[in-house]
Write a structure and sequence with these properties.
- With 358 residues, the protein is an alpha/beta fold.
- The chain has a seven-stranded parallel beta sheet with strand order 8-7-9-6-10-11-14, with helices on both faces. A five-stranded parallel beta sheet has the order 2-1-3-4-5, sandwiched between helices. The protein has a two-stranded antiparallel sheet with strand order 12-13.
- Helix 1 links the parallel strand 1 and strand 2.
- Helix 8 crosses helix 9.
- 38% of the residues are buried.
Length: 358
């Protein structure tokens, strides 16, 4: 089992620590970060049973994993940590986002980008048709997990889905919207989805073939697909690629059930939720059968109009969240463990009763 040292602190680390029993082929040797993260890192390392001493954790790990920078931190420390890892003979792995952000020209051959893609034979299944633009039918039911935007707990909901479905005995293929899903055995999004030079039609065809290859090689009971980014633009600084990713995925495969992830709202506007669900069905082909209220809020910073994300503590969420009298039981806060698990079971049960899906 490969031992990972994570740098720097990122809110997703708390999820990795909490769900560490679900990690596949890896364990977390500890977390190292910037000085301002001292309290948060100490709490996570205590949960993991780690000392928190960088030198000791580096000696104990096999690989240093550099995570996304979620708040415009100083890049110099990334390079310092990478140099110390390489000097200690450790492997270096980097998330795709940071691999694009860092200047790695001087480190060629000394790092790997975090991903988990199917074997070549599976990836190429259905592509032996020359230039023919053909979409394949995906026989297995498909559940999509998508959201209003970035950082609205889509990844946590995908992990919760996997946890419940594994316990229920389903054979699952999970394609994660977050590259950290690879640590849980999920496949990661293929690079072509994010290629700004590739036509929309080509992305649709390629993603369909990607899923078809997985359906042939695994014959899953269910696909769970995490949809990157969000369903609409927020501001002049946050476009969510004008919802290109849900459009590509919804065009590539027929989605049988969808989980809508929202930002934190003290109380759901049920009329607004109904309108959003209708919009998602009509535009993306996502039939929303469950909604999960996230732990994250956002504000627009007045000085530059950029979006800032607020990661809320569970104490705050429980204190300030109010369930509407007419709120369906498949709408729940992601922190409401029993409710969210019951909502997942009910949503999957609807798929079992839908002959068009099964």
């Amino acid at each position: 089992m490969k031992k990972l040292l994570l740098f720097p602190y990122h809110p997703d680390i708390e999820l990795l620590a909490e769900k560490s029993d679900m990690l596949q082929g890896v364990s977390i040797a500890g977390v190292h970060s910037f000085r301002e993260d001292l309290a948060a890192v100490a709490a996570v390392n205590e949960t993991l049973g780690c000392t928190g001493n960088f030198t000791e954790m580096l000696a104990q790990c096999d690989t240093v994993l550099l995570l996304d920078d979620y708040r415009n931190s100083e890049m110099k420390k990334y390079y310092d940590v990478m140099q110390e890892a390489l000097g200690a003979g450790k492997q270096v792995m980097i998330t795709p986002g940071m691999a694009h952000k860092l200047d790695l020209s001087g480190y060629r051959g000394q790092y790997a980008v975090l991903s988990h893609m199917p074997e070549e034979s599976s990836a190429n299944t259905g592509t032996q048709v020359g230039s023919e633009q053909k979409k394949h039918i995906i026989e297995s039911p498909v559940a999509a997990v998508f959201g209003m935007g970035k950082n609205c707990c889509k990844f946590e909901n995908q992990i919760l889905l996997k946890s419940v479905l594994d316990r229920e005995g389903y054979a699952l293929v999970w394609v994660s919207s977050n590259p950290l899903g690879a640590l849980f055995g999920a496949y990661t999004m293929p690079d072509f989805l994010f290629d700004g030079h590739l036509a929309f039609e080509e992305k649709v065809i390629r993603f369909n073939r990607f899923l078809y290859g997985l359906s042939v090689s695994h014959a899953p009971d269910l696909f769970v697909i995490g949809v990157p980014e969000g369903i609409s633009e927020f501001s002049v600084h946050e476009y969510n690629h004008f919802a290109e990713y849900p459009l590509v995925i919804g065009s590539a495969v027929s989605v049988d059930s969808a989980v809508l992830c929202t930002y934190f709202m003290p109380k759901l506007d049920m009329a607004g939720m109904a309108g959003m669900a209708l919009h998602c069905r009509e535009r993306f082909g996502f039939p929303v059968q469950m909604a999960s209220v996230g732990r994250t809020a956002f504000v627009q910073q007045s000085e530059d109009k950029q979006i800032a994300y607020l990661y809320l503590k569970e104490e705050y969420l429980r204190k300030h969240y109010e369930t509407c009298p007419d709120q369906p039981d498949v709408y729940a806060g992601v922190w409401e463990t029993e409710k969210i698990q019951a909502a997942i079971r009910k949503t999957v049960g609807r798929l079992e009763g839908n002959p068009d899906a099964i």
